[in-house]
Specification:
Number of helices: 1
Number of strands: 16
Strand content: over 45%
Largest sheet: 7 strands, antiparallel
Order of helices and strands: EEEEEEEEEEEEEEHEE
Structural class: mainly beta
CATH class of the largest domain: Mainly Beta
Shape: elongated
Helix content: under 10%
Distance between the termini: 40 Å
Strand order of the largest sheet: 4-10-7-8-9-6-5
CATH topology of the largest domain: Immunoglobulin-like
Number of domains: 2
């Protein structure tokens, strides 16, 4: 399921937005010994991969950009001094290696509209990262100047090297009118 992000474009200005394709893992338990923290979660993580953990109660186990020390399909560990009794919650995220992926973003006045008002691809306007999961979107000032002020709908779809298409994000974009010319 795509994440919904509502955005704004300033008409006549360069527009930049970054999207990151993450692999999530739902945490079901945590144990700690003062040196390592072991998260129980079905995952595809590997040692030396960077993960971020959020939504855990207690919050002492919420960590940003930590390296996985060891991993199996059902657990992963990180080096950290956090301790405490796990209560509930938590999702771990790791960026997906997007080497070889392509991307396309389209903006329309209505989702069912046959006409796009902005169309960007990985060969024109979208830069695809590598191991960081990053899709960097850029529309030029000339491109945004040609979009009428108003509310539009967009999505960004990514395609893996094996032709699997994933909708990474979707939502509304408000184009604010340029006043100074």
């Amino acid at each position: 399921m795509a994440v919904t992000y509502n955005l704004t474009i300033d008409q006549g200005s360069d527009w930049y937005v970054n999207f990151v394709y993450n692999q999530p893992a739902e945490i079901t338990n945590i144990t700690a010994n003062g040196t390592t923290v072991t998260y129980t979660a079905v995952n595809g993580f590997s040692a030396a991969q960077t993960v971020s953990i959020t939504g855990v109660n207690p919050s002492t186990y919420n960590l940003q950009s930590v390296l996985v020390n060891a991993a199996t399909g059902s657990q992963f560990t990180v080096l950290n001094a956090a301790t405490g009794t796990y209560i509930n919650g938590g999702i771990a995220y790791a960026p997906v290696n997007v080497t070889g992926y392509t991307a396309a973003l389209q903006l329309r006045s209505l989702p069912e509209s046959p006409t796009t008002v902005l169309s960007l691809t990985s060969s024109s306007g979208i830069t695809v990262g590598t191991t960081n999961g990053l899709f960097a979107v850029h529309a030029t000032a000339n491109q945004t100047a040609n979009i009428d002020e108003g509310i539009y709908y967009y999505d960004i779809e990514i395609t893996s090297p094996t032709s699997v298409v994933t909708r990474l994000a979707q939502g509304q974009i408000v184009v604010s009118a340029e006043v100074t010319r």
